[in-house]
Amino acid sequence: MTALLAPLLALLLTLAPGPASAERTYRCDGDQLLARSDQGPVDAVGIPNVVAGTVPGAFVVLRWRNLALQLPRTNNAGAPSYTDGKWWWSLEDPDHPSFRLRQGLGTVEAFSCEPDPAAG
């Protein structure tokens, strides 16, 4: 029985998500933005993108200006990115995340983001 449980336990440990959530503060187009990422539940083990510890079901909550956005993680290869089809948040460069808004057919507004020095 123990011989059967050891491989299962090893598999479960490799699939375990990293920290439950992480928070970071930025300045995007001059206004403070709070980004909190959450690992979420593991709901599709077969999807191979587990870069930076993000797993299927992960999401980010962005609080900026008068907005509160919860964006699901995409299944794109590479650095973690999140979108709802209108808003896009990407952590290819965590010190300068990509934050964009699709406004219409082919029109995209990009917001410049950097770490907030006042947040310490």
User: Alpha-carbon distance between the termini?
Assistant: 51 Å
What oligomeric state best describes the polypeptide chains here?
Answer: single chain
- What is the count of structural domains? 1
The CATH class turns out to be Mainly Beta
Stretches where pLDDT falls below 50 for ≥5 residues?
Answer: 4-19
**In order across it, which strands form the biggest sheet?**
4-3-2-1-9
Extended strand count = 9
How would you sum up the major sheet? 5 strands, antiparallel
* Overall pLDDT confidence: 78
Principal-axes shape call: globular
How would you sum up this structure, described in words?
The protein is mostly beta strands and 120 residues long. It has a single domain (18-119), classed as Beta Barrel (Lipocalin), CATH 2.40.128. The chain has one helix and nine strands. It has one helix at residues 2-15; strands spanning 21-28, 31-38, 59-64, 67-72, 81-83, 87-90, 98-104, 107-111, 113-115. The model is unreliable at 4-19 (pLDDT under 50).
